[in-house]
């Protein structure tokens, strides 16, 4: 159950994450710059492309065939690729793999499967960027509680604390390198987890 894409007035992830230093350095036209996994209608890639128009590297939108085969009107330069993230990831060595509110839909066992497929495709310089809510250890908001209960009741899934993210990533052979927060985040804002190979 993806969170509706409401901005809450906050910056996009690529406005507070150091894109030039972490993603664009050394990228060529043939490299996969950003693969949006389970990216739906491509709103994140479209916004990223608009902000970083003309940069080298490929932008690839992945989702299930039923989604990809019905997409129309995406800007030139965004490639479409039908893929089930429970199967091995065919895009190897992308600079960044990105998922927005995907993993909170799945219990740990299934989330680990998704992550292991990405881990196996990552190169030594690849990043996995995960945009999700991180539930505070204390003083969490009603929003966090509502989302957690909704996911538990409908999908047997959960919103995770930072330690739960660390544990989930570790079990999949990955490491949380950093957490990036919007400067003007509000209750319900997501965080960007920067993940690398262990």
Structure in words:
With 198 residues, the protein is an alpha/beta fold. The chain has helices at residues 13-16, 19-24, 43-51, 65-68, 108-121, 142-155, 162-171; strands at 32-37, 58-63, 78-82, 96-100, 127-132, 134-135, 160-161, 174-180, 191-197. The protein has a single domain (13-197), classed as Rossmann fold (3-Layer(aba) Sandwich), CATH 3.40.50. Helix content is 31%, strand content 23%. Strands 3-2-1-4-5-9-8 form a 7-stranded mixed beta sheet, sandwiched between helices. Strands 6-7 form a two-stranded parallel sheet.
CATH architecture: 3-Layer(aba) Sandwich
Q: Tell me the fraction of residues in β-strands, as a range.
A: 15-25%
Strand order of the largest sheet: 3-2-1-4-5-9-8
**N- to C-terminal distance:** 29 Å
Topology diagram in text:
Layout: H1 13-16, H2 19-24, E1 32-37, H3 43-51, E2 58-63, H4 65-68, E3 78-82, E4 96-100, H5 108-121, E5 127-132, E6 134-135, H6 142-155, E7 160-161, H7 162-171, E8 174-180, E9 191-197
Parallel strand pairs: 1-2, 1-4, 2-3, 4-5, 6-7
Antiparallel strand pairs: 5-9, 8-9
List keywords for this structure.
198 residues, disordered N terminus, globular, alpha/beta, Rossmann fold, 31% helix, two-stranded parallel ribbon, 7-stranded mixed β-sheet
